[in-house]
């Protein structure tokens, strides 16, 4: 039996010989020949291995990115082990969250339902390509083709394809949603083609409003949050009953009652982008359809002061009826405002409303009574939220937000005044911002509420007097007859 020294010597000699052969092959054999022998060697070794490897390329053979590659990159980010030596770090433009990814040849081991899976990030050089687009005509560009290798035992092939890969896709969506930087979109000055996303221009939506900070009754906040959560969980329900996966909310009440803050809180809660649609900027029903197609899923579409938009339509209709030459004489004025009510209704719940999933549509108005009943029925505006004047519970939330206090001896007097003063949360917030000392801020608020109450009492007395005068006139008219 050969000695240990003999075995070690033979192994060292074999290794040295292999290294020399590899060096010669690398220096003198063409790359194609090297690739051929490497492939044959892998095939030979794989015959004795129980391991199966799936290759996930970055691109699908064209210019489109492979969705599974992007999903794998997101899925693996929180699973990067501490012993990894090289990590890529990236902060995309207009984003606030840093992205991490492994470098070439780094491995990540994942265990799912007791199955061990090994991920490895690789890249390979591709032949240089000539660019034929201006202004880079004739330039040669050399890029690396990135891909992931997913290795596991052959017996788990069906499990990986049917269970693990869908799990990766699902988790990556959740991670992407958590990392998402919210955007506020407004209509751009240029109109693109149907479905062209450049119709919209965006800025980061960094509004601090949350349901925790809203000056709103607790029961109302809970009702809205429960409704939103139920909406998110009912994708299959909407599909089963044959309805588009969308939900409509009407926010109504006087100015300053927090309608915009509620919209921001809903966006932050859902992690949905917000599309601010100004109907007066559109050129008709066709333009409205283009706008709808160009919005993404998981978004909130907001039309503020919907009653004002409808009033413009009414004025246009009356002008057309009064002046037959209106179509010519007033073209520049009327071309901005010819979205019809039927077009708006079709936009909310017609066939075009089904062009997308997980969408929230919000209308706001200061005068609900002015709206056409057809706009308000369930299926269009599913939930009507009354943004009322400030309530005692709303005041306590504002005091906590602005002054950092939960109780104070002056609260009792303030709550009594708020119940009758008819002030908005914006009015109360403005008073609380005037002094950081709770005692002075609350005293100033009491003076403000008392003055508002006197003004309200005076206006109510005047209205009562006018009603009495009108009633007296009617009595006199009847007696004279």
From TrEMBL:
One of its GO terms (molecular function) is ATP binding. Its cofactor is Mg(2+). CDD domains: RecA-like_BCS1 (cd19510). Residues 454-481 form a coiled coil. GO terms for biological process: response to stress. It catalyses: ATP + H2O = ADP + phosphate + H(+). Residues 245-391 form the AAA+ ATPase domain. SMART domains: AAA. Keywords: ATP-binding, Coiled coil, Hydrolase, Magnesium, Nucleotide-binding. This is AAA+ ATPase domain-containing protein. InterPro entries: AAA+_ATPase, AAA_N_dom, At3g28540-like_C, ATPase_AAA_core, ATPase_AAA_CS, Mitochondrial_chaperone_BCS1, P-loop_NTPase. It comes from the Eukaryota. The keyword Nucleotide-binding applies.
